[in-house]
Design brief:
This protein is α+β, with helices and mostly antiparallel strands. The protein is 67% helix and 7% strand. The chain is built from nine helices and four strands, in the order ααβαββαβααααα.
Length: 314
Amino acid sequence: MFENFVQKRRYFYMFSGVVIGLGLLAMIYSVISTGKIFPLGVDFLGGTRFEIQFTDTVSEEAVRDIFTREGITNPSITALRGQDLKNAWQIRTEFVDANEAHALQTALENLAPLVPGTFSVTTVSPAVGQEVTRAALAAVIVSGIVVLFYIMFAFRQVPNSFRYGACAVIAMFHDLFVIFGFAAIMGMISGWEVDALFLTGVLTVAGFSLQDTIVVFDRVRENSSRRRSGSGNFEALVNRSVSETIKRSLITQLSAMFVLVSILLFGGASIKPFIAVLFVGLLSGTYSSIFTAVPLLVSWELGEIPLISRVKTA
């Protein structure tokens, strides 16, 4: 089945290019329409998020009027759907202090009775939001650098060990671009916002992606040490390595995906965006480990990548 796997690598590159390209188009459209590559939550921008549930039916316009009368301009209001979430709303506003939040709670209770214990307020100052953004960017960059040097050290007995690390990191960023595009698309379609849980999903996806890639590369390393191959035999060696690891990779990833699908179907509404990001990221990670990282390594070894293929690496 995988005898001619890497020989079809150009089709894999084209598919990845189409998927990432669609995500980039969604992010560009989001920037043009909203000024952000995807909708950001209060964890990043700073602000206040209210979650409430009424005992009686209340319209979105009535809820909006309450916030408008209290001086909150353009609140973002979303109806919460899911188990036991009848007449539930989530409202995102600019930063409000404790006194203003209390006044809003009183006004909402005058509108209709609230289900006891369902009024919650989450507030993040703009300074904290900026710190979260910097921490997210730093975490991704640092993890990529650490993994690159780790793979170079672990694969030091293999010629051009830098290429293994670089291809693994490229596959990781491939998966991150996929979930960024997914976040942008779902932001436009369903109004999903990126919050601190999204950062958790990003780091989790990065870890799964690297783990799966390293498993395949480790088998390539083992087969290379058993038989030193020239460039003419490298494709056959990689095909055999993928064939020997594909079942383990798929079983590991599919087991996690089945759990995520169960949570998507039966879990609460507030956690579904996070679970969906994890699912898409793991799906992309399973694909990229085999269909992106491995073919990219072969192309690099065979000198098919312009400019960098000519660079000698240790």
